[in-house]
Amino acid sequence: MAPKSGSKKSSCCSGGIGGWFKFLAILLGVLAPVYYLLDQNLERFYIFKLDQLQDVSSRAIEKHGDDTQAIVKYIVDELAGQVSLTSFVNQDEEWVFNNAGGAMGAMYIIHASITEYLIIFGTAVGTEGHTGRHTADDYFHILTGTQTAYVPGSYAPEVYPPGSIHHLRRGTVKQYKMADSCFALEYARGWIPPMLFFGFADGLSSTLDVPTLWRTSWLTGKQMIGNLARGKF
Known about the structure:
The chain is of the alpha+beta class. The protein contains five helices and ten strands.
């Protein structure tokens, strides 16, 4: 009798596991085409324009030179002054440390949603690290200071001075350095939520700076959920 009972139990467990695999296969079959359709139409969800951000950054630098604080205010004020963007631009200049890929700096979140984020990122003392391999294109508009970058196989650094844009294409990766003081307007467009894992990894595994992790989560969540409630995907 015992062997018979054991056989029935084994069959039952096997059926349960098979059922889960079948469920996951069906779920994947449903979600895959939905993801593909959304991914092919991401452009329709963007509210910031590449040439617009380059233009306002250039004019801010031309007007204020090395005064980073004045440059940031100029950019945020102009973006917030546009009717189509006013409700999506965070004018509360709240800074928080950011540790990611071994690099440390601080950021001010101007906008964060499912498909876009716009932040001021930088440091007054310099930093260096891994860019991360992301699910979004990242446009790093250098405002003050200089950023350098490196890819394996290259014998010379990429150099990005004030007014230039470092475009990190989706899925690519580099080593980067911001020597001394350097600040940038960073704009990412694509799938933003998966990028958060990279943004939180160092805090969870290295710095263990719980107050900063909490503050970052609060500011990011407030922006993403708030913009989603306004219909911004």
